[in-house]
């Protein structure tokens, strides 16, 4: 059986804002608006008010990574995520160089609305070190 594409889906309160945040984190872009519309805002204006911010997405501009989809749900986040994203911010780096790169990326993401939770120091040979973060809606992710 051939490999399947996947889409990562976030339940959230504000799909548009959260998709904009994750586009910045991942270097992704918003998909183009539906045919016949110059922008997503123009498309949204055609929808009933209750549907205008019900979903959003971001995509890898090179088409390699998974699409990330955001859907509005009425309930808030209740517990720790059972699945989370590891954002590979320092591949190939080790020790203090790695942690410095993770810290720099963590600062950039905090400026975008993320929250830093904790730092895990490198402990060779099993762990290279990482930062635990939360997105603007409290979903955990790691800078790895």
In words, what does this structure look like?
- There is one protein chain.
- The chain has 144 residues and is α/β, with parallel strands linked by helices.
- It folds into two domains: 7-72, Signal recognition particle alu RNA binding heterodimer, srp9/1; 85-143, no CATH class.
- The protein has three helices and seven strands.
- The chain has helices spanning 15-26, 40-44, 95-112; strands at 7-12, 55-58, 67-72, 85-87, 115-120, 130-134, 140-143.
- It has a four-stranded mixed sheet.
- Strand 2 (55-58) and strand 3 (67-72) form a beta hairpin.
- The longest helix is centred in the last third of the chain and has 18 residues, at 95-112.
- The radius of gyration is 17 Å and the shape is elongated.
- The model has no long low-confidence stretch (mean pLDDT 94).
